[in-house]
Amino acid sequence: MSIMFDDILGGDEDPALNSGPGFEKYLKTSHVHELQRGVTINWLMQAFGMKRAAMEKRLGNCPMLRAGQNGSKVYDFRVACAYIVDPKLDVKKYIENMDPKDLPENLRSEYWGARIKEQKARLNGEGLWLTEDVQASFAAVFKLIKETITLWTDTIDESTGLSSEQVEIVDQLGRALLSEIDETVATYARQGRTRSQVQEFDEDVS
Q1: Confidence grade of residue 31 (pLDDT, cut at 50, 70, 90)
Q2: pTM (two decimals)
């Protein structure tokens, strides 16, 4: 076995391995299975172009795969990479996609607190509407009522036939109903029977 593989697998450390030629050939697909047996700090230093002090600091909390010859530390390559390489991810999205039970204890309470607040906000939001949307909805209803009432005379006349006096009576009743509806809505708006929630906030401040 070559001295390069001795280093990969935890054999005798050779200082020449840190700058020796031909390192790239050991990263070919045909040699990937050798990595599964573990790698040493020397190998990782050369692979990541890092000095020993920096590499040892990165691997401070990394669990060893096993002890190699001469007591050298041998690491699982994939596990070691997670400690060596700075994560390139959106931390916020990563936490959002985590299962709540996997969150740290201090973040777990924050998570459920936020969910409760969200539920309350959604519950309150079900009873809140934009003024413009409400006005548009009522305008459509009033338009339908007006169009229906103004057609009463023609509809009844075509069905049963009406005398001129009866036509006048139906028309008067229709106009009276529309006028009453208009006045009721106007009075309701003037008296402000439906308060904006903003008023509640103002009352709390005063």
Answers
A1: low
A2: 0.39
